[in-house]
Each structure stands twice: as structure tokens, then as C-alpha cells.
Amino acid sequence: MVGYDHKRRQFLQYAAFGTVAAALPGFVLAEGGQINSAPSAAFKPDVELEITARIAEIPIMPGAHTSVFKYHGKLLKGPKVAMKTLPGYLGPILNFAQGQKVRIFFYNQLPEPSVMHWHGMHVPQKMDGHPMYAISQGERYVYEFEVKNPAGTNWYHSHTHEMTATQVYRGLAGLITITDEQEQKLGLPSGEYDIPIVIQDRRFTAGNQLQYLYGMRERMVGFLGDTILINGQANSTIPVKTRAYRLRILNGSNSRIYKLGWEDGTPLIAIGSDGGLLERPETYPYIMLAPAERVELWVDFSGRKPGSDLALRSLEFHGALPHMGGGMQRGRGGMRRGMGGMGMMSGGLSQDEALPLVKFHIAGKVSDSPRLPETLVRMRSLTEQDVSNPDRPVPIVISMQHMAPQLNDRSFEMHEVMDSEKIPVNTIQKIRITNDHGSMGGGMGGMRGGGMGMMMSMAHPIHLHGQQFKILSRTLQDQGGGDGYATVRDGFIGSGWKDTVLVMPGEEVEIIKPFEDYTGLFLYHCHNLEHEDMGMMRNFYVG
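Above: the chain sequence. Below: its structure as C-alpha cells.
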């Protein structure tokens, strides 16, 4: 039945392209939703991979194996370092170099449609993983693109319409690393001293099977699990030596936000963000990491005693979830008391409480270690002087009215584009993202001004496909009567290139984003995956 429904959906999609083509000049059917099932003879790949999505039984917790969706990889052509298999359910790490041409044969052997998105990568529309390109069980999609991104850490994951949350939750995700000439000259920690850390929260049944809850709470605030996994493993301890390391950290959770901090209060040194290395190292007391965001840390274990441990934690913070007004308790612990566990499953972990993530065990002593470079990479400079629309920023207004997560008062339609979402190609645009302080009216009886006054404004990680962007400014317009912003504001990385930005309640974020090289439909959406699947996603048409 799933296959029939998907075929019918594909037919309706193709039927809709005539309307899309008429409304959007340049949107050609050949560049639309037709499945790219054959490789191009004109494309000469340096790296050729095969990735198959299928059901697998993987050991995660002690005892019974866990049924997951898993990306299995095979290197067909290219250097051996291009693919590294990890234990557990995550897909292989794909290691690319800037300028390489990559071809990936994606085979779907799952009993439901799926599509792969190359998160953070600057690729054409047909290669980006728009849900209109989802393929059914037994079908193949061929991705071909040149790696234009600079050195950094990206990732790939499922992006299937209304199934992204469940498919990523069941395992369809993996890391991408990119290197370039600038990075190679820096002498950063490499090999065993370059450690990937994918943070995810999950919930398991007594029989070790993944449990996905999707009640009203999860629809409103997103799924929150009660078990933290690092690289697909619980209770993770990583052995290290007394020297410097490069940690590539990805928040691969569906909706959980992390406030990264060392247990002993040691500051964090960031050397990279979503879009690659920073111009110079930056020191933070803690770092906020929303779903889909990445950060690269320089961590020097020199001087620490062999046999000792150092834990990376998510520190307590506030203000990311809806709060109760009208005399109900707010502030510290107010969510758990005032909302009866809103944002926290029964017996689970709430969004804002402190929790351990991963432990580093000082297992060996060495005498040599690289030094932290004073400067890292030269970066393209963009200012408001470069934008095409300085006085008319492209709006992205986040709202949660009537329990309907929306952007610009609209829910997702596969090919729909408003006038404000039409972007001239090869322009640089100023975009203003506003987290609207709306109430949950209608569906809950329109409680604004009543005794309850349940405000549905919450933090949202907004992800824009296509090229990376830079943050121009963050402004808190309305704090909503709480002091939560003070617990997170010092942890936002404001420099460097980004593809995802956490927008707090009452906050306005202005960004500057190039729309270069490629035309077509490119998504922007909330990376709280439950919100995305509920329709908090829209298209830009670049043409």
C-alpha cells in the first residue's frame, strides 16, 4: 500500500509541474521531479560510491539487537579514505576534498519511499534531496555533484516528505568531512586525533527496540528521548592521550538542543562551525548546538593526569520551550511544574536540564602535541553593502498558531512558492528571521488573555538549503517575561558560515545569504524534525 500511495503521489507531483512551470519561468520539467536514475555520460567522477538504505539488526544496548534503518556504503572508485565505516547504525563517514567530482548511487531497499539530502553542501536542485525526488523500494537515484564547499563538517540524512523525523530517528544519517588546501597547511590534528561525535537522543523499549512517541507533546515541542547516544552507542567513553584533538560535533537529534560545556568549567575553543573552519579560534564558556548544527572544537588534554576522566555535558538552560502565563510558574523548572512535563516524556529527560553526553578517558601520556594556530582560514567577506535587497529583507516569520508550525503563515506545499520566496539567481540576499510571539489559539480554545495564557513561542533551528549564510545580527525583541535568554546568549557562534541558526523566542536574526550558481527549488525549514514533518517548511525558487 505504501508503494501504491507513493506512485500516486509521484503522478500527482508530475501533473502539478505544468502549473509550476507556468508560474515559475525557467522551471523546466527535465529539471523538476523526474527521478535521476541513470548516470550522466558527461560527468566524470573522481569518487564513486554506492549507498543502500535497508533494515538492519544492530547491537546498541546490552542484550537484543535493535532493528534500524541503515545506510550501507561501498566505495566503487576513488581513494580509500573517501569512505570510513563506523560501528553501529550510522551511515559511513564520507571524506571528500574540495574540487572532487562525486557520483553516488542511492538504492532504496526500505519498505517506504526515501531520498537523501546532502546537508550543508552547495549542489544543484536535482542533487539536493528535495522530497519531490523520493524513490520507492527497489528504485535507484543517482547523485552527481562537484564539491564546492571549503574544508569542514557536513552530513547527510533522509529528507522524505512527512517521514523525515521517523527515518532519521531510525538511523538514516551520516557525516561528511571536506578538506582543502588551506586546511591542509594548518597541521590540525588528524587520523586518530580527529574524532567525530554525533549526538542523538533515543528511547528504547524493554526489548531494546527504538520507541518513537508522537503524541501532542511531541508534535508541539518535538521528540525528546531518555537515552543519549554518541556515534550510535550508549554510555560512551572515548580514550584519548595527553595531546590536542579535533572534535567534529554534530547534533543529529530530532529536536533536542544541547548546551555544550566541560564538567570542570574549562572554556571551549571553537575552530569551525556549520560551514567550515573559522578565521581564527574563538573561546566560549559554553556552546549552544541545535539540531543539525555542527561545531569543531580544539581540545588539548595535555597536562591532564593519565587515568583521569573529563566529561562533556549539556548544561542546564531555559527559555527554549513554551511557558505558562496567567500566574502559572515559569523560569527555573517552570516547564516541568507549570506544564505537567511539556517537553518531557514520562520518565524522560526534559529539553533544558543538565545531562552527561560523553566521557573522555586519559588513557596514555605523550610528550608532543600540535599548537593551536593563531589564525585558521581566509574567508569570503560579505557585508550589507553586498546585498541586492538592503531595504527589503526576505522575511521568514516563525509561528506556532493553532498548533500548526508555519513559516510566513503558510504550511509546506511541494511546489508552492510565494512572491517573497522568488530569488534572482546569482544575487546575495538579506533575510530576516523572526520568531513570532504567538499564542496557541483556536485549537486549544483561544487561550490568549485567559487564565491559562499558554504561549506557544519556542526556540526553532532554521535551516536553509543551498549555500551557507553569515549572521549579521541577533536582536531580542521580546523576552516574554522570562530570563531564559541570559542562560544561552553567550553560546551562539556568530562568525563563520552557517546553514542552521537557532532562533530563540522573541528573537530576530538577520542573515546574509548568496543564491549563486544553481536555479530551482531549494527548501528552508525548521530542523526540529517533528515540526518539519508537520509543515514548517517552504520553498525558495531561485531563477
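The two ends are 37 Å apart (CA to CA).
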